[in-house]
Structures are given as structure tokens and as C-alpha cells.
Specification:
Bound molecules: glutathione
CATH class of the largest domain: Mainly Alpha
Number of domains: 2
Order of helices and strands: EHEHEEHHHHHHH
């Protein structure tokens, strides 16, 4: 399998982590989806990465759908609990992690515009803050040890909040207070600290890429 990814992408990181947790061999191809030479157009009608290209040439795209696909095609080891409440809880966490990431995406793109809408930014900021508070509440008391099972929800939340640290420390995003998720969220911090110890997280840390977001939004 080939994973079309970008080094800083939290969406692509989710898939890389899931593949590693499931011990599925894959190679990575780095792409810049906004560039003239992007290959995403050849594989996805949405022109977005991540994309998983199978050995048959078939392409699976959109990180949420790829996670579903992986779970059905490669059920072992599972990245979902077996009981209904557990499954719904993991999917709730996954959805929150993904939607919070999308709201941050909206903020960073809006702030690159010549005349950003303050209302829009504060609306998205509210979503991020409340989403993170809810995630903090949901992970309360959890601290998965290295050998413990984790879920797609854990992966989505981990990929999202850890990219905030990366974005700030590399000046890739404005230093927004809302991205400083550790402040006052001790449960989430403990939980993420445990996830970060896993090999799958260690081996998929975000990295820099030359992207001119200003050119993208204009
Ligand atoms: N909902 C998509 C979002 C993926 C996404 O936004 N990917 C970015 C790179 S991190 C991208 O390809 N952007 C190009 C575009 O949106 O046209 C997913 O979960 O896969």
C-alpha cells in the first residue's frame, strides 16, 4: 500500500498511526495538495490527502472513510471496542477530534485572508474551545499504557491536539490562545502523554513542509 500524505498533516497522521497499530506495511509518498504538480487529482475527486493507494491501484480517500475501511478490511488488532457503548464512545471522540481540527483549519485560513472576518474567527474559536473541553471531559481518567488497545477516537484526538503544538512551535499557524490546549486540561494532557509514548505516535511526528497558505487563500 502507498499512503499519499503531507509531513504536517494531522489527517494523514491518523492513517499512518492506524496502519502502524495494525502492523500493515506501507510506503509513504509526500505530496503538496495545493501545488501545481499534486497527484491527489489523479486519485480523489476531492483533491485532498490522505489517500491510500492499494496494490491493485484502487484509491481510498478521506481520512474518516479510510479509518472505516481499514477497520473493516483489517479488523485485527481492532481500533474499536467490541461493545456498542464502547464503539459509540470511540466514534464520538473521533468525530470531535476531527471537527475540532476542521474548525482550526477554518481559523488559520481565514486569518490568511486580507480582511479576515472577526465574527467567523470567533465562531470557529468557540467551537475549538468547547470541543476541546468536551474531549477533556470524555478522556477523564484514561491513561492507556503502551501495550493497551487504543481506538480510532484516541488516534483522532491525539493527531489533532499534537499538531497544535507543532503549528505553534514552527510558526505554521498564528500563536492563538485557543491552540494552547494543555492549559487547564489536565486529563487531556495525561491522556495525550500516554498516547505519545506509543511507537505509532513516535514514528509519525509532524514535520515541516514548504506551503504558502497565503497563496492558497488568495
Ligand atoms: N476531510 C478530509 C480533510 C483532509 C484535508 O483537509 N487535507 C488537506 C491536507 S492536510 C488537503 O488535502 N487540502 C487540500 C484541499 O482541501 O484542497 C480528511 O479527513 O481526509
Amino acid at each position: 500500500m502507498r499512503l499519499i500524505n503531507a509531513p504536517p498533516s494531522p489527517y494523514g497522521r491518523k492513517i499512518a498511526i492506524a496502519l502502524k497499530e495494525k502492523q500493515i506495511a506501507f510506503e509513504t509518498y509526500y505530496d503538496q495538495p495545493w501545488g501545481d504538480t499534486t497527484c491527489t487529482v489523479d486519485y480523489s475527486p476531492l483533491e485532498q490527502l490522505p489517500i491510500l493507494v492499494l496494490d491493485t491501484g484502487k484509491a481510498i480517500y478521506d481520512s474518516t472513510y479510510i479509518l472505516e475501511w481499514l477497520e473493516l478490511r483489517y479488523p485485527e488488532p481492532p481500533l474499536l471496542p467490541t461493545d456498542v457503548d464502547g464503539i459509540l464512545g470511540a466514534k464520538l471522540l473521533q468525530m470531535l477530534g476531527e471537527r475540532v481540527m476542521e474548525a482550526v483549519h477554518q481559523i488559520t485560513f481565514e486569518l490568511k485572508r486580507s480582511y479576515p472576518s472577526e465574527d467567523w474567527v470567533s465562531r470557529q474559536t468557540r467551537k475549538v474551545r468547547k470541543g476541546l473541553d468536551e474531549i477533556d471531559r470524555l478522556v477523564c481518567g484514561r491513561c492507556p499504557a503502551v501495550g493497551d488497545a487504543i481506538t480510532v477516537g484516541d488516534i483522532a484526538v491525539g493527531s489533532t491536539v499534537l499538531v497544535f503544538d507543532f503549528l505553534i512551535s514552527n510558526d505554521f499557524a498564528p500563536d492563538l490562545e485557543v491552540l494552547r490546549w494543555r492549559h487547564d486540561r489536565r486529563d487531556l494532557e495525561t491522556f495525550i502523554g500516554a498516547l505519545e509514548n506509543r511507537q505509532s505516535f513516535q514514528e509519525t511526528k509532524p514535520a515541516m513542509m514548504d506551503v504558502d497558505l497565503q497563496a492558497v487563500v488568495c
